[in-house]
């Protein structure tokens, strides 16, 4: 029990862990993708800003050259582009800002067309960090000139570094928070299932009258709890029916066994005074009753297990006529099969259907005063067989009880003390197994009327039902 409990707890924790892990992983993936996208956008915006400022710097340099010559070109102030040079076509520095005096050209970036501005991130000797370089070609009267303006990108690198540190700290913190929230939420969602498991353990331990708690939420958990309770109700009814069935079978078997044992014990007390043929006949009667009860119980067990007997086309009208005249009975049996030109063919087990007809006729013979009427006709897509007698009938409140196992009305016990009370129960089970039904009603003569309905193999238009009154 403890081992099973540990397994169930581990299983519940594993579900909680898996759900939490999946949710956290998805959130982490989304955050990572979002952060990378945000960084890319911010980086692109910073580069565009540098490009605009770099273009503005070299354009001002060109304007200053036109106004005041080369000396004015290196006094342009466009932050952060403070590194300025003017280079000729041979790569010689013609003019340079104060920070680049005596230095070689910053880069060999050379636009091909006049007025074209090109950009590059490069390293400049003497600068601690890379610089963003903008270069523009200027076709002057004294030759081609290349205007170079550069600014350090140290601030952008620091911003990127700060952003990276912030993200590397915040993402784990956010994921831990998400993990905790999801873990708690999943645990709260699984709490009703844990309660159901504990309650089901108590129920399986013997408390069949208990039920699982239905949460006050109108969701799938509540629906599951309701479905479990419905299943438990059916299971309890089934178990109780099985217990009653076992008790009834035990009683029905114990009675003939007790009678048989008593007869044999009495005969053995004075064996010389006993009529042994009579004792043997009485013992044989008890054995026949035992055999009948056992056969009925086996039939019910097969029907409940869903064991399908071999099916074949059966003419219900012909079968009814054959069974009605198979053996002489205490009262005459009047058979009426309507619409003889169209046989009532059903797909069923001939052996089981014979068993139903025999049970119905035997029951009618047991209660009839003077006659039995057997009517067979077509009703839509069903074949209907009615067995009516002129006996005392079945009270309305007992018309369902007679189909319960081992249930016999007082009148039936008075007329036949050897019956087991399984005949009508077996007959209804067979009818249901064939997709039909068997019910009790009142006949025209005031006696019992048992109505068997079975689906036709080939449905055809119906004929009017015969009048009962």
Automatic annotation (TrEMBL):
Its EC number is 2.7.13.3. GO terms for molecular function: phosphorelay sensor kinase activity. SUPFAM superfamilies: ATPase domain of HSP90 chaperone/DNA topoisomerase II/histidine kinase, HAMP domain-like, Homodimeric domain of signal transducing histidine kinase. The keyword Transferase applies. Residues 248-458 form the Histidine kinase domain. Its main location: membrane. The chain crosses the membrane at residues 21-42, 165-191. The keyword Phosphoprotein applies. GO terms for cellular component: plasma membrane. InterPro entries: HAMP_dom, HATPase_C_sf, HATPase_dom, His_kinase_dom, HisK_dim/P_dom, HisK_dim/P_sf, Sig_transdc_His_kin-like_C, TCS_sensor_his_kinase. PANTHER family: SENSOR HISTIDINE KINASE TRCS (PTHR45436:SF5), SENSOR HISTIDINE KINASE YKOH (PTHR45436). This is histidine kinase. It comes from Thermomonospora curvata (strain ATCC 19995 / DSM 43183 / JCM 3096 / KCTC 9072 / NBRC 15933 / NCIMB 10081 / Henssen B9).
């Amino acid at each position: 029990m403890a081992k099973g409990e540990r397994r169930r707890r581990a299983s519940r924790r594993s579900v909680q862990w898996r759900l939490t892990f999946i949710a956290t992983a998805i959130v982490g993936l989304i955050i990572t993708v979002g952060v990378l996208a945000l960084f890319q956008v911010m980086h692109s915006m910073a580069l565009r800003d540098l490009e605009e400022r770099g273009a503005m710097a070299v354009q001002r340099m060109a304007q200053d050259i036109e106004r005041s010559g080369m000396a004015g070109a290196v006094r342009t102030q466009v932050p952060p582009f403070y590194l300025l040079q003017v280079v000729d076509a041979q790569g010689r520095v013609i003019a340079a800002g104060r920070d680049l005096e005596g230095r070689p050209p910053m880069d060999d970036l050379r636009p091909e067309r006049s007025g074209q501005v090109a950009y590059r991130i490069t390293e400049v000797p003497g600068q601690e960090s890379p610089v963003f370089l903008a270069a523009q070609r200027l076709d002057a009267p004294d030759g081609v000139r290349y205007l170079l303006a550069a600014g350090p990108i140290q601030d952008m690198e620091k911003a990127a570094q700060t952003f990276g540190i912030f993200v590397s700290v915040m993402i784990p913190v956010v994921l831990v928070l998400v993990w905790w929230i999801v873990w708690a939420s999943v645990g709260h969602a699984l709490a009703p299932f844990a309660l159901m498991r504990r309650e089901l353990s108590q129920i399986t331990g013997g408390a069949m009258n208990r039920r699982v708690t239905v949460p006050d939420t109108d969701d799938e958990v509540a629906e599951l709890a309701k479905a479990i309770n419905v299943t438990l109700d059916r299971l309890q009814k089934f178990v109780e029916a099985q217990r009653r069935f076992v008790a009834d079978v035990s009683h029905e078997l114990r009675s003939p066994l007790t009678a048989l044992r008593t007869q044999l014990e009495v005969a053995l007390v004075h064996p010389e005074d006993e009529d042994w043929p009579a004792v043997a006949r009485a013992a044989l009667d008890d054995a026949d009753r035992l055999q009948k009860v056992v056969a009925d119980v086996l039939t019910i067990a097969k029907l409940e297990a869903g064991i399908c007997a071999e099916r074949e086309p059966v003419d219900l009208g012909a079968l009814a006529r054959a069974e009605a005249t198979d053996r002489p009975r205490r009262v005459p049996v009047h058979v009426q099969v309507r619409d003889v030109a169209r046989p009532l063919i059903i797909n069923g087990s001939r052996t089981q259907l014979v068993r139903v007809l025999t049970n119905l006729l035997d029951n009618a013979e047991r209660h009839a005063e003077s006659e039995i009427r057997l009517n067979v006709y077509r009703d839509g897509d069903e074949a209907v067989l009615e067995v009516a007698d002129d006996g005392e009938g079945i009270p309305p409140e007992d018309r369902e009880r007679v189909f319960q196992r081992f249930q016999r009305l007082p009148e039936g016990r008075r007329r036949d003390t050897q019956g087991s009370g399984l005949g009508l129960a077996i007959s209804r089970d067979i009818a249901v197994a064939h997709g039909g039904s068997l019910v009790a009603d009142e006949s025209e003569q005031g006696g019992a009327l048992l109505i068997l309905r079975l689906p036709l193999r080939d449905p055809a238009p119906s004929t009017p039902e015969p009048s009962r009154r």
